[in-house]
Amino acid sequence: MNRTIHALMTAGALSTAGCGAGHDFVSPVVAQELAPFQGPTDIPQTPTLDAPTAPVIQEAPATRPQSLTFYKTQSSSDWVTHTFKIQAKYRRVIAVTGGAPPATVTVGALDLNAGIGGEAKVELPVTLTVKTIREATRLARGGDLVAVLPGRYDGFTLGDKADAGDDAYIHFKALGAPGEVVVDTASPDDPNWMILLLAAHHVIIEGFNVAGSNQPGKAPEGPNAGILVNGNFVHSSKLAHHIAILGNFVHNQKKWGFHSVDSHSVLIEDNLFALSAMEHGAYVSDGSDNYVIRRNVFFGSAESGLQCNIDATSSLEKLKEHPALADAPPYKQTREWALGILAMATEKFGQNAFPDGRGFNFIIEDNVMNDNGRAGAAALNLAGVRESLIQNNLTYGNYASGIVEWDNANGFDRAFVEPGPRSPGEVTGAESLPLFGCFSNVIRNNTILASVRGRPALMVGSGSWGTRAHNNIFMNDANPAVELHPTGIWRFDGKRNVLNTIAYEGRAAGLRALAISLPDEPGSVIAVGRARVSAEVVQSSEEPWVIIERGWWKLNPKRPDFHPQKTSTLLAGRGDPKDMPPNDLDGKKRTAADIGCYAAAK
C-alpha cells in the first residue's frame, strides 16, 4: 500500500495528505449530448434519498448565472492546488472536549498535499472551548479550526456559512491517537445521518471514527450514512462544494459510509469505508462533478466498495421540483424532455451548476477495494461518469464485478438502447448515441482480479463508449474478464492489457469496426489465467487488506503483494510507455512501462 496510507496506520495524529505530480490532462473533446446504453438489470438502481429535515433558507437563482468550470489535469495534487485554496493560518481555534479546557492544541500544518505525517507540527492557542461538536458548528466561522479532543460525541450538521470560502475553510479535526474521537450517534438535526454537510462549502472533515452499530446477522439499523454531503438544490439553489474528507474511519453504517448528492469539487482521501450493511462503502450520486478520490480502502461492504452513480433519472426528477423550473413541461422519460429541461436549467443556473445527471472530471486513483459485493454491484461501479481518469486501483477478493461503466438503465435513453445499433453504419455520432452514461474515460494501470461467474473484471456496459483502457490486468477465471456491450465498442481503445477472456454482448461483435483497438487484437495478452499472473507477482493471495481492531484499522501484515517480479515477462515493461501514471499505487515513481497498479519490484 502507498506510504501515506501506511503512515495513517502508524501516526499518532491524523493530517491532510497528497499525491505525486503528473502532467496536464486534456480530456477528449466530446459532444455533451453523447451517452450510454441500458445497464445490466442485476446491478441495483439508485435508492431514493431520504430528504433531510434540517432547515435550509431558500434562495432565488442568480439573475446572471455563472457556469462552473473544472480544472483538468492528470495529477491529483495539481488538482488540489488549483481547486482548494487553503488558508496558511487558522483565524481561531475552537476546542471541543468534555474535560478541562485546553490552553493549546498541537496539529499538523494545514497542507492537503503534504502526505500523512509529512506536515510540520504547530502548537496553537485555543480561542474558546465547547462541550459538543454541534455547539462548535454554531459558533464556527470561515477560517476556524474545530479541534475535537478524544471522546465520544453526537453527530452534527453544518450548513451554509457565508464567511467560509477560499483561504477560509472550516476544519473539523480529530485529535489524539487514531480512533480516539468517536462519532456514534445521528445528528440531532436529522436522524438519517451522523455527519451532515447540508448546502455546506469550504469544509474539511478529518480523522474521525464514524461508528455505526451494524453487525453481521443483525437487521440493519441506525442512520443511513456516516457522512452525507448534500447541496439540497431544490431548497437552496446551490450545490455543496469544496469539501475534503480526509483520513476518517467510517464503518458499520446501515447503507453507506459516505454519500453525496448535489455537489462538486470534493476531495476524498486516505479513508477506510468499511462494512456497510445494505449497500456501498461510499456512494457519490445525483448531480456530482469534479471529484478526486484517492488512497482510500473500501472494505467488506454488501454491494460496491465505491459507487459513483450520478443517476440521470433521480437528478432530473429532483431538478424539475425547483420553483424556478415550474414552467417546464411535465416530466417525461424521453431524450427531448431531458434536453429541454437541461437547457432551461443552464439558462437559469449556469452550466454544471445544478444536478444534471452527468458526472464530469473525476480522478479515482490509488484505491484498494477488497471483500465487497456479496449482495451484487461492483468493486468500482460507475454510471454517468465521463471525461475522467481511473488509474492505479487494486480490486481483489470481491464477490461481484471489478470496474463497471454503464448508464443506470435511465429511461431518457431507452429508445437508443432497445434494441440499440444493429450495424456500424447506424452509429454516426452524438445524434445516434444515448445522452447519459459513461464516456471518454481513461482506465489505465489498474489491477482487477476476480473469480466470479458472469461478473467481468471490466464491463463497458450499454450506454458507455469512448473508453481508453491501457496497461491493465483484467482477470476473472470464472469468465469473462472483459465484457463489451454494443455502444461500448464505439471508439473503445484497449491496448497493452493482460486478460484471460473477452465477451461481446448482444450485437457488439458485429460492431467491432467502430473500435480503435480491442483487447483480443495484437498488443494485449489474452488467454492468460490468474495462475500465470500469480506466478509473476511477489505474493498472490486472497488475504484481507486490512484488520480492524481497538477502534481503528491497520494494514494486514499477511496481505498479498501484487508487485510484478522484476523478472516477469508478462507484466514488467510490457505496457504503453506513452500512457502511464507517473507513480504507482505505492506512490513510487514509475521508471518502466509496467502493467497493473504497481511498478515492478526492484
Give a written overview of the molecule.
- With 602 residues, this protein is mostly beta strands.
- Helices cover 10% and strands 28% of the residues.
- It is built from eight helices and 43 strands.
- The strands form seven sheets. A 13-stranded parallel beta sheet has the order 4-1-5-8-11-14-17-20-24-28-31-34-37, with helices on both faces. An eleven-stranded parallel beta sheet has the order 6-9-12-15-18-21-25-29-32-35-38, with no helix packed on it. It has an eleven-stranded parallel beta sheet with strand order 7-10-13-16-19-22-26-30-33-36-39.
- Strand 41 and strand 42 (552-555) form a beta hairpin.
- It is globular.
**Strand arrangement across the biggest beta sheet:** 4-1-5-8-11-14-17-20-24-28-31-34-37
Which structural class do the helices and strands define? mainly beta
- Beta-strand residue percentage: 25-35%
C-alpha end-to-end distance: 16 Å
Averaging pLDDT over every residue, what do you get? 89
What share of residues is helical?
A: 10-25%
Q: Largest beta sheet, briefly?
A: 13 strands, parallel
Using only CA atoms, what is the Rg? 23 Å
**Beta strands, count:** 43
Q: Which parts are unreliable, with pLDDT below 50 for 5 consecutive residues or more?
A: 3-62
Shape: globular
